[in-house]
């Protein structure tokens, strides 16, 4: 059993409630969306991917020596073998996260995995991609992220939060698209809205502003 892998590296978790903690990233290749602000465009196709067995992936993860692993993409759930990789990592004792764009059914994801579901807003150009049934798969240990590029995105995200009562289900994070969305403006909108959501800045871009891959 194999997967198409874009890169595997160890860095600081730049986003989510685990921001600031060391983490190994397994970035799988291939994505079904084309977001206007995508910062990992190099992972959208499998053209330059490395085909790796589950054993090889887990072996490479072990060499990086960190208890935390995030499987990301691209869109990791595009590959049917991803749930088995997640299970293998959980069985090996890792704290396992998956970041997904929310367009694929998450029903097969191991319950031990912390799901980070990135619901796309209008200015991404992909706002119709959200798979609503995935809300039923969320638990208190999971997270929903909205990447916000402007007021239209903010209002859309607020509507989704209210429709599904997301803040009562899991943690919700708003992340600004830099430089289009000044963090100060987003922070002030959050304060005025009364939404119980977290402002999340991309720490890896602050720490390594000139490096795109491997951070």
Strand order of the main beta sheet, please? 3-1-2-4-5-6-7-8-9
Estimated structural class = alpha/beta
The average pLDDT score comes to 94
Number of strands: 9
User: Main beta sheet: strand number and arrangement?
Assistant: 9 strands, mixed
What share of the residues lie within helices? Answer: 10-25%
Distance from N terminus to C terminus (CA atoms, Å) equals 27 Å
How many helices? The count is 5
Task: Tell me the strand percentage band.
Answer: 15-25%
List the uncertain runs. none
Order of helices and strands: EEEHEHEEEHEHEH
Shape: globular
- The rounded Rg comes to 16 Å
Describe the structure.
This protein has helices at 54-64, 82-91, 151-164, 183-193, 203-207, and strands spanning 2-12, 22-28, 50-53, 68-72, 95-100, 114-118, 143-148, 171-176, 198-199. With 215 residues, the chain is an alpha/beta fold. Strands 3-1-2-4-5-6-7-8-9 form a nine-stranded mixed β-sheet. The two termini are 27 Å apart.
Notable characteristics:
24% helix; 9-stranded mixed β-sheet; globular; single chain; alpha/beta; 5 helices; 215 residues
Short description, anyone?
The chain is of the alpha/beta class and 215 residues long.
């Amino acid at each position: 059993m194999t997967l198409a892998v874009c890169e595997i590296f160890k860095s600081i978790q730049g986003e989510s409630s685990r921001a600031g903690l060391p983490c190994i990233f397994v970035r799988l290749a291939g994505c079904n969306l084309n977001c206007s602000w995508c910062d990992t465009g190099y992972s959208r196709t499998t053209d330059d991917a490395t085909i790796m067995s589950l054993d090889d992936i887990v072996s490479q993860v072990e060499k990086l020596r960190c208890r935390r692993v995030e499987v990301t993409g691209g869109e990791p759930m595009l590959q049917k073998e991803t749930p088995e990789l997640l299970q293998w990592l959980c069985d090996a004792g890792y704290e396992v996260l998956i970041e997904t764009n929310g367009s694929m059914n998450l029903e097969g994801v191991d319950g031990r995995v912390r799901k980070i579901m990135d619901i796309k807003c209008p200015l991404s150009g992909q706002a119709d991609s959200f798979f609503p049934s995935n809300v039923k798969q969320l638990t208190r240990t999971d997270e929903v992220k909205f990447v916000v590029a402007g007021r239209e995105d903010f209002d859309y995200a607020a509507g989704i939060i209210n429709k599904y009562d997301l803040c009562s289900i899991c943690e919700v994070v708003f992340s600004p698209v830099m430089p289009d969305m000044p963090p100060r403006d987003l922070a002030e909108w959050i304060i005025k809205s009364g939404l119980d959501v977290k402002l999340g800045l991309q720490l890896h871009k602050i720490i390594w502003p000139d490096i795109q891959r491997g951070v």
